[in-house]
Amino acid sequence: MKQSKNFNGKGCLDIENKVSDSRKEYINEIANYTVDIGTENKVSDSRNRKKVVHIGILLEDNKKDKDWMRKTLSSDSSLDYMIEPRSVDDVFKYIRHLKRQGKRIGKMVLMGHGNKINPHIGRMQPADVDIYAMARQRKRYKTNYEDTKKNIKVLRAQLKSAEDTKTKEKLQKMLGEEREFLVFSRDKYDESVKELNLFKELSGAMDSNAVIGLLNCSAAGSAKGKEMMRNLGKIFLRERGGRVVGCTGNIWTIHAYPVMAWLTDTDDITVKPWGEWVNYNVRPSKVSHCNGYNHDIDCQCGWGIQRQKK
Questions:
Q1: DSSP state letter for 127
Q2: What is the pLDDT of residues 133-186, one digit of tens each?
Q3: Mean pLDDT of all residues in the chain?
Q4: Whose CA, among 24, 72, 118, 304, lies 20 to 30 Å from 192?
């Protein structure tokens, strides 16, 4: 009962169990690799020369289940890299690292536990990729910053006209608190701009018609899970297009449930869904970048300040 080797709703994810011993040795070597930005795994010259690469990312925190998940990803002979990042932020930085090396990602597999009620992919939560919530938060920080500047101006005027010592002390204290909040709001705004700028850069890291495969249970099993799929697509696939694929139900593998291989009389299926594969397709769109000359506080171009014409 051999299944179709693609994400078409009928079988597994481009997975081939029969790999050479040298391939297994290579996979085992990088399976234990924890992302260190700026450091590359030792791979063959042919892999280093590849312009389009396929990567597997293990996002699970549960030590007990990491082993069989690692075996599942390492059974996919179409993957060139397999990483175990320390954090979700390291995932984004590693992908940016590949882009800056001139590589594009053709297929990216994200693996970890998930569930229908609280969708997630291992340690990756919906909030980590909710770009609309991040944009709203950035707007709030900007509003707080501007409102606080106005409050400081009012307090300074009141302090200047105050006569008694008690009132002056009270206004001085309020002024100090507002100044602290001003710095806090500006710092948070800058952080949110950098975060959104990073996501903008990640879109260019994917190749045309790239595929993001989600190997977590119930990735598409709820409205919240489907929203997470859409956000992943908008972050990574907006520039050149592609699709995000997730399952509506649970996923089992022969590495986690060997009895299932016996019951189905097969050992060549690495991933089997209890549900349907759902595709979220993203059309490519032209991404425009600010040149810095028309930059303002609300711009996400990354210049930080207005550029001056020479």
A1: G
A2: 888 889 999 999 999 999 999 999 998 888 888 999 999 999 999 999 999 999
A3: 75
A4: 118
Q: Where are the beta strands (DSSP E) in the chain?
A: 52-58, 81-83, 104-111, 206-215, 242-247, 250-252, 272-274, 277-282
Listed in sequence order, the DSSP H helices in the chain are 21-31, 45-49, 63-74, 88-100, 131-161, 165-203, 223-236, 258-263
Q: Which two tokens stand for residue 171?
A: 């206004």
> Quick one: average pLDDT of 84-94?
91
In sequence order, the 6+-apart residues with CB closer than 8 A to the CB of 283 are: 241
Amino acid sitting at position 131? I
The amino acid sitting at 237 is L
Interatomic CA distance for residues 62 and 260, integer angstroms: 22
- 0.85 exceeded by the pTM? no
**Nearest in space to 55 (alpha carbons), one of 11, 104, 93, 122:** 104
Structure tokens at 209: 């018609």
Please give the DSSP secondary-structure letter assigned to residue 287.
Answer: P
20 pLDDT more than 80: no
What is the residue type of 31?
A: A
Alpha-carbon torsion, ordered 217, 222, 225, 229, to 10 deg = 100
d(C-alpha 228, C-alpha 222), whole Å: 10
Give, in order, the Cα–Cα distances in Å from 82 to each of 40, 173, 213: 12, 54, 14
Do you know the residue count of the chain?
310
Give the number of other Cβ atoms within 10 Å of residue 100's Cβ.
Answer: 10
What is the rounded distance in angstroms from the CA atom of residue 130 to the CA atom of residue 151? 32
The CA–CA distances, whole Å, from 134 to 9, 89, 176, 189 equal 32, 15, 28, 10
The span from the CA of 294 to the CA of 301, in Å, is 10
Question: Mind listing the pLDDT tens digit for each residue in 103-119?
Answer: 999 999 999 999 888 99
CB neighbourhood size of 216 (10 A): 26
250 forms beta bridges with 274
